[in-house]
Every structure is written in C-alpha cells, then in structure tokens.
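Field reference: sequence -> structure
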Amino acid sequence: MNNISLLNDSIAQTLDYAAPILFAALGGLISENAGVVNIALEGMMRFAAFFGVWGAFVSGSPWIGLLWGIGIGILLGILHAYITVNWAGNQIVSGVAINVMAMGIVTYLLELIFKTTGYSPPAPYFGAAANKIHLIFLKNIPILGGFAELTIFVWFSLILVVILHFVLYYTVIGLRIRAVGENPRAAETLGVNVLKIKWFSVILGSIFAAFGGMALSLGTLSSFTNSMAMGKGFIGLAAMIFGKWTPFGALGAAIIFAFAQVLQLLLQSTVSGFAKIIPLGFYLSLPYLLTLGALIGFVGRAIAPAADGIPYKKES
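Structure field:
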C-alpha cells in the first residue's frame, strides 16, 4: 500500500469511527444547551443499534431499520424528558437508569429474538459497498481520497454539525434553546415556553444518539453485538465537554478521539523492536486514555450552560 492510499484509508477510518462519537456528542450538546443533562447517550445508542438491526433483519431493508432506530430513540427521549422535565427528577439518575435498562433489556431481546447471547445474524446495512456514497473522482487525491467511499452516517454527521451550528446561533429556536439553558426563569418572562423547549431538545438529542448507535450496527457492521457501544456514548459526552458545548468543537474532539482508535490499529500492525514489548492492552486502551487525559486537562476550563442539570419548575 502506497503512502497516499494509507493516508486516505486512515482518514476514511477516522471519519467512520468519529461518526458514532459525534452523533452522541451532538445529542448531549442539544440537550444540555437546553439545560438537561443526558448521560443516557450510551444506553440510547445501544437500544437504537439493536432495534436498527432488528428492523433491517425483519424487513430486509436498512431504511426500515433506520426508522426503527429513530423510533426507539424518540421513545427513550420521551421517557427521559418526562422524568427530568415534567417531574423535575434527578437527571443523572434518569440517565443511569436508561443505561442499566439498555444492558438488561437488549440482552434479553437478543436472546429472545435471535436465540443468541453474543451477536445477531447479519442484516442489510449501509456499510455495504452498494449502499455507500461513491465519489470515485476523489479516490487518488491525497486527503480528499478519504471522502471517496463513506456511509450516509458519516456524511450526515458532518452535515448535521453545520445545520446544528446554524440553528443554535442564527435562528430564533436556537436562541430560545440557549436562553433556556442559561436562564430559564428569564426566558419564561419573555414568553418562551421553557418546558416545550426542554422536551424538544431532549427528544432531538435522543434521536441524534440513536443515529450514533445505528452508525455502529448499520454503518460500520452489519449486525448487533452485545458489547456494542463500548463506551462511545461516554466518549461522546467527553467530546461535547472538550468542544465547549459547540457543534464544531464537538466535531474536532470526535475526530481527535477517533484518530486515537485508528492510531492504535496502525501501531499494532507496524510497531517493531522495543514497541513490540508493550502489551496489546495498551494500544487498545489508547482512545480511552486520550479521553481521560483530555477531560483531566480541560474540564476545569470548560463552562457548561449556567442552568445545565438544574431541574426547572414552572411558576404558578
């Protein structure tokens, strides 16, 4: 493999690995900009990854699987919003509960439906060559060649960053979302329906997280494995914080964390000499070590929306 091919393949892999993290980060970002913490991103990704594969397997179409995944994302968003917005419940507890539910319920459904404890049978998916977006004219161009054959999930995640940035900072609804996340009481006095904005943001964030789960099961793979999401929802939260709750910041952080995963693959295949002595587990842990390092060194300087995580009760 020549240097240009290696460079382009590494870029393509980085973008592919970044998509689930980026979707999770954007899901947390839109929710927290409205003042609702969502640490259930991991569980939502796991639910959507499973339901996406289930829908594709039953229907024979990845597009139907996509709809199933979006549907479960909406339902989980409704659950989280009802607990945290209507009941003003503890947002961390609600998120942890959804994550725990995802572990138990999805494992049960995997065994019940597919009669297996490890992984589902293959299903139609967007990562198949026929379903990728082919830009062959870019293939042999350095750097741009990494964009020649990507899935719809990768392209949608990149486009979503631009859309979300525009919505948050250049539209009325974006201004209201950020106002609710900073000072909901003041926003209410100006006629903003705080509860509706929170509901909208939590459900939309859950849908983004669902896309992240399906980017794994219907994008990178063609089946669901019981170890899926593997912490990517939490890495998405780290990317959100590292990116200062902004879409382009989250994109940069997701790419950095994803590159760490590509780097560990390259190191495993190319290291020699003394580096061979280093245990394999070190290379496998690189993405997580980088995430922890980024949070330890940066989280103190990252300022969340002022009302983030504070339950809001409408005045009589």
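Note: Residues 86 and 195 are 8 Å apart (CA to CA).
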